[in-house]
Write a sequence for this structure.
């Protein structure tokens, strides 16, 4: 039976599950979010296509004797050089234009939505495809242009390659129009907020599927009882500063099973770590060595910035940042903040209805091997609404909308603990309104919304 691990009673079934290594998935995600990877692939593909078409042209002379294609390709070597030179110059100019537009969009996004939103624009596939295609067409034309010869008795005009370059040019003009339209839509606040909300909902459902879990209290007692039989302890100390971006849970469970260890992680993705902090506590039936500690550290991915790979709160903070900027005195855009509140309600309503995984991972022998820190519903609510409440405490519109959305979540959930968390936030909003609202009618509206919880 293959090796594997699962969350007991959570989104993995009782059979071991083998998944792609976390580091590989993290590396692929980093490549996808980079601005250079896809353009480079397109450029190298264009280089390969250029040599392939030139080879075909050298083996087979393609020159129609009539029709539209003949009209386009007629003219000899000098005409071919002129066409290729014109296309190359135009593509370089269009690539410069696209690059300039992209920089303007990134600058606007940074100032309007916050610098942490730049990743979303860099991740945009169309921006990468457009830039890569224009530069690739330029490189393609240069290679084909060099192959055109008309000296002495040797004449070589790669008509098939030239026809392909002309078709690429037409496609690039259409792509430029699509790019301009896409850019004008992508910088609209509602579109940005909608995209982030979809990413957040996807991340929440991936990391926290809607399934049952065992009683976390019983699991904690079982884990602590198991530790009593392990005589040796070793703290794993951090050596670098930065954000914990992802964890390779599979490798940690396999390490714990092979070496008969219990591993208790103290942090989760999204936490900021400094040297000397205790990353984990390992308990073993035999001496736990530095090699074991190094293996644990190798399973943790750290970086200078936060990553959405396993960090559910990452997208929450992006929406909160947009709302906080909208509520600042310099911007004063309550409608954008209201949109953020509405969008945050969607994933939070989902979280209010599910059972959260306990955070204990089992090996394929149904033994607890790993204790992890997991996000809670209370933590997600705090991350989503505390800052918005604080920035919007003087706005009746914001406070009333918060109470309305809290009531929506309150009605949807059957979990008493989640209802208590929602009610706690509703009370804080109600108190903020009583302290800051001076208009009697606004205060009456706030009281009416709060009364729905009672």
């Amino acid at each position: 039976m293959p090796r594997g691990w699962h969350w007991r009673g959570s989104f993995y079934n009782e059979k071991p599950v083998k998944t792609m290594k976390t580091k590989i998935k993290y590396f692929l995600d980093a490549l996808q979010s980079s601005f250079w990877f896809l353009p480079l692939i397109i450029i190298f593909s264009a280089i390969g296509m250029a040599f392939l078409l030139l080879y075909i042209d050298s083996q087979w002379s393609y020159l129609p004797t009539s029709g539209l294609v003949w009209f386009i390709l007629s003219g000899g070597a000098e005409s071919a050089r002129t066409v290729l030179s014109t296309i190359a110059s135009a593509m370089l100019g269009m690539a410069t234009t696209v690059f300039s537009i992209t920089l303007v969009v990134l600058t606007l996004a940074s100032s309007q939505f916050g610098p942490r939103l730049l990743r979303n624009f860099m991740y945009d596939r169309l921006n990468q495809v457009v830039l890569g295609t224009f530069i690739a067409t330029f490189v393609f034309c240069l290679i084909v242009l060099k192959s055109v010869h008309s000296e002495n008795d040797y004449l070589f005009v790669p008509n098939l390659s030239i026809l392909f370059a002309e078709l690429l040019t037409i496609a690039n003009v259409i792509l430029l129009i699509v790019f301009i339209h896409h850019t004008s839509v992508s910088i609209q606040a509602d579109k940005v907020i909608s995209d982030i909300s979809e990413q957040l909902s996807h991340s929440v459902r991936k990391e926290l599927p809607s399934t049952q879990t065992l009683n976390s209290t019983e699991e904690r007692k079982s884990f602590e009882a198991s530790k009593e039989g392990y005589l040796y302890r070793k703290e794993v100390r951090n050596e670098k500063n930065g954000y914990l971006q992802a964890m390779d849970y599979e490798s940690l469970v396999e390490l714990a099973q092979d070496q008969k260890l219990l591993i208790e992680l103290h942090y989760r993705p999204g936490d900021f770590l400094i040297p000397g902090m205790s990353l984990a506590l390992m308990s073993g039936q035999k001496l736990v060595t530095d090699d074991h500690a190094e293996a644990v550290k190798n399973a943790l991915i750290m970086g200078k910035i936060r990553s959405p790979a396993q960090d559910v709160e990452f997208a929450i903070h992006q929406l909160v940042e947009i709302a906080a900027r909208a509520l600042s005195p310099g911007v004063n855009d309550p409608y954008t903040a209201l949109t953020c509140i509405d969008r945050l309600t969607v994933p939070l309503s989902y979280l209010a209805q599910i059972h959260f995984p306990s955070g204990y991972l089992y090996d394929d022998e149904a033994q607890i091997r790993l204790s992890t820190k997991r996000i809670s519903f209370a933590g997600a609510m705090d991350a989503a609404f505390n800052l918005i409440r604080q920035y919007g405490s003087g706005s009746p519109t914001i406070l009333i909308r918060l109470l309305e959305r809290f009531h929506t979540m309150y009605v949807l959930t059957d979990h008493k603990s989640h209802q208590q968390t929602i009610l706690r936030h509703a009370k804080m909003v109600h108190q903020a309104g009583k302290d800051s609202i001076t208009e009697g009618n606004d205060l009456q509206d706030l009281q009416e919304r709060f009364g729905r919880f009672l």
Observations:
- The CA atoms of residues 2 and 294 lie 25 Å apart.
- The mean pLDDT is 85.
- Residues 76-113 form the longest helix (38 residues).
